[in-house]
# Entry
Amino acid sequence: MKNSRTIQFVTLFVFLATLLSSCTSTSKKPIDHKAVQEQNELLFTKTLQTHLTAIEHRNLDSLKSTLSPTGEMQLILPGIKIKNTADEFVALHQEWFKDTTWTMETKIVNVKVGDKIGMAVTEAMYREPNRNGSPYFNHMMVSYDLEKIDDKWYVIKDHASSIEKTKPKATTTE
# Structure
């Protein structure tokens, strides 16, 4: 009888040890860092493209959806005071979008995306059919910074620099 209990105890012990080891062992696949980075870049680029398309089509609601929920946004443009909040950014664009005569085409030139912060450089061609009696263009490079918050990318900085633009007409005095 004693031998039978020992066998039962050993059998129970082996069974429990096997059960516990199977519960604690992990069969997790290793993280595919390349796939994670590609997904991150894809989501970053999608947000940036949404932002650019919203500007091209004067879509204020779509534009707002790309801005940080924290209200952080810095806009740096030649010749104007720096805007430091999403509200200031939206107000400027709301006023600008009222003019329906301009067009803008954009192209993403490059992106560099980290885990939480990314940057991009875009090329933009802005045109007006009639500015002071003549067609006007402004060829620009625009850099953007985006921040990832709760697994979603948001634009937090827009800095435009002119490469070439229409020269103002010279005024003549007689």
The chain has a mean pLDDT of 88. Residues 101 and 128 are 6 Å apart (CA to CA).
